[in-house]
Amino acid sequence: MLVVARREFRARLWSRRVLASSVLVLVLLVVFLLLQAFVFGAVKPIRVGLAGQAIALADGLPQETASLGVTVAVSQVDSVAEGVAAVRAGRLDVLVSGARAALHVTVDNQLDPQLRTTLNGLVRQQVLDAQIAQLGVRPQDVLSRVDQAQISLTQLNVTDPNRPQAIAVGVLTGLLVTLSLALFAGLAVRQVAEDRSRGTAEVLLTVLRPRRLLAGGLVGLGAAGFVHLAAIGAIGALIALIAGVVSVPGSVLVAVVGGLLWYVLGFALFGTACAGLAGRATEHRRLLAWLGGGLCVLFTVGTVLVANDPAGAAEATLSVLPPFAPVLMPARMAVGVAPGWQVLLAIALSLLVLAGLAGLVGRGYGRSVLGR
Amino acid sequence: MTDAVLEIDRISKRFGAVIALHEASLAATAGELFGIAGRAGAGKTTLLRICAGVLAPDGGQVRWRSLPFDPVSRAAIGYQPAAGGLHPDMTVPDQLVYRGTLHGLDTNESHRRAQMWLDRFGRRALRELRIATLTAEERQLVALIATLLPDPTLLVLDEPFAGLNRAGVETVVDVLRERALAGVPVLFSSNDFDLVERYCDRAGILRNGQTVAAGSVTELTADRARMVRVDAPDADPDWGDSVPGCRMVDVDGSRVVLELGPEADDQAVLAAAMATGRVREFTLLRRSLGELFDVAGDAR
Most confidently modeled of A266-270, A304-308, B226-230? Predict the structure, then answer.
């Protein structure tokens, strides 16, 4: 059996079809991650020019705006006229000029609301400081007391700020596992069809029992898929971490390990089922279309559920059931919402179904792979 | 047959509603080429698959040296399927070594034997090629080498001469004869009755899954009816039926074909024809094994 597994592994690991698919997936993944890092996910700073007395805001303005989630790039201009010209030319987004208590802002079209709030706050603060000073009190003391006065907060639902990122990692993991299952379970169908037409199954059946022939072929094919998925996962994770797309390395590690675990179980399930069906089918293309369509539906349903409510009851229930588990469970594990007992239950159910499936397929595999 | 090493005893096999074999029986002895002849769909491939242990029969038994096949004796069978059983993505040496290791040989020994057999067939150049790039004849030879490589104790070959030219057939027959002389029974199927008649020691003929005839080729052809074609333009149209022991089976103008019974003498037929006048043609016709098979099949 190992001889057969080794041959299939070597043949599929370097086959053009598999290499081309893996390279394509990897390129798409890398492009997506780089776009996320440098285009979609990148925060474009508001270019603010400071003229005259407003130059005094150069140190404080970035800190104030950052607290509201706005990034600014501050520069000094020599005169208001030069600053206005820069705004007109698009070299600056905002020109701030005038005294701190009466700032004047020039923009080409719209002023960012957060920046407007910040600048208004600075003006008011300046006016307030002056008023407090007239009362003979040190403004710093008053402001210190004011800062200490805060509301007390009770949060009924605590949302992890990293949740959107984790969901994205989960969906991406589910997608990669789905693509790998579609490719390699599809290759299991082809393998059976080729073994039948070339007579290789006949030769092997003289030295192997049908179940061992089935197992040998699937182990070799599955191992080749494992290596490809591991390589894609490792490269993708490395790029995501280096490019800063993902800020929580732990979630990436869980995604890679979970994805590989569920690929193995998923391939065992789908590969065995496909090999069994391929032995009996005459139209292998139709079978491949059904496989691709079925996995596409599973992934779409899973993605919708994961994106909406990864911890929801429907998602949790489906993710432990064998047909859905290989696609949904790695996504939920990556999001971090799959308790250990659910993962173990899903693994146990998958192994149970696999045992039944292997018995069922193995029983008639010898005859079916001969086309009878 | 007491000296048979391979006994196929009343084997039956059904695929759904199709009866592929019905109590087919054959026996092969050590050191002989045994041909299984039959038209397409006669059950040859199913019979060979059962012999090789690829399929299990529904009824009957295949015995090797008087015992049912066990996994050890089955692993010693060299089986070549009609489709060849080769992987197009492999190189010729890799394919041959793979088949050797499947039968328990180590890689070095498999390499050595692969080289030896390629040299034996004069195909050393194939060492550089992939299976996918081979011609049909080269594939057939590589498939045979892959089958011979583990040094099997029984050779079961499904259509091993398909795609070979005359020289290729002669080369393969030489090798198979050599293996047979070394004590290995060689069982092969063919739908070419002439080839079976020409090269086999013994043969079995299948028709609709049943054994129509089996025995030595000499025995099988000895029983065939003798026929003569005579062109006697001056004779009466039914002159042939008046010759003792003869029966007219075909008439084409003045040419008739007569079937001679066991007691009939071809010289008496010639004399009778000459007695009618001119004789333009007198030809002894031999029925081939294929024609015999068809006759025997029709008679069943």
Answer: A266-270
* C-alpha span between A233 and A334 (Å, rounded): 13
Q: Which residue intervals of B15-70 are DSSP H helices?
A: 44-52
SS3 state at A50:
strand
Find the Cα–Cα–Cα–Cα dihedral A206, A208, A213, A219, rounded to 10°. Answer: -140
Residues 71 to 90 of B: which have CB under 8 A from any A CB?
Answer: 74-75, 77, 79-90
Coil, helix or strand for B187? strand
Collect contacts of A301-308 with beta carbons under 8 A, ≥24 apart: A302/A174, A302/A327, A302/A328, A302/A331, A303/A171, A303/A174, A303/A175, A303/A331, A306/A167, A306/A170, A306/A171, A306/A174, A306/A331, A306/A332, A306/A335, A307/A167, A307/A171
Judge contact between A185 and A274, C-beta under 8 A.
yes
Element (H, E) at B22: strand B18-29
Residue with tokens 């009957």: B60
Measured between CB atoms, does A66 come within 8 Å of chain B? Answer: no
Which residue in this structure is represented by tokens 């698009």? Answer: A90
Tokens of B252: 């084409």
- How far lies A112's CA from each of A93, A344, B68, in Å? 10, 50, 90
ipTM over 0.90: no
Instruction: Note whether A203 contacts B15, CB cutoff 8 Å.
Output: no
Is residue B98 within 8 angstroms of chain A, CB to CB? yes
What gap in Å lies between CA A288 and CA A187, rounded to an integer?
9
Restricting to B residues 101-140, those with a Cβ less than 8 Å away from any Cβ of A are 101-103
Reference A106, options A71, A116, A127; nearest CA is A116
Question: In this complex, is the C-beta atom of B1 within 8 Å of any C-beta atom belonging to chain A?
Answer: no
Using the structure block, give the residue that is written with the tokens 């069809």.
A193
Q: Which helix (DSSP H) or strand (DSSP E) does residue B252 occupy?
A: strand B246-252
Count other C-beta atoms under 10 Å from residue B108's C-beta.
Answer: 10
Query: For residue B128, how many other CB atoms are within 10 A of its CB?
Result: 10
Residue A370 in contact with partner chain B when CB distance is under 8 A: yes
Of B55, B82, B90, nearest to A199 by CB-CB distance is: B82
Residues of B in contact with A213 (CB under 8 A): none
Considering only the beta carbons, identify the residue of A200, A370, A372 that sits closest to B87.
A200
Assess A363–B contact: CB distance below 8 Å, yes or no: no
Contact A326, A262 (CB under 8 A): yes
pLDDT, tens only, B168-222: 888 889 889 988 898 889 999 988 888 888 888 888 888 888 888 888 887 777 6
Is this structure's pTM higher than 0.90?
A: no
Dihedrals phi, psi of A168, to nearest 5 degrees: -60, -45
pLDDT score recorded for residue B113: 93
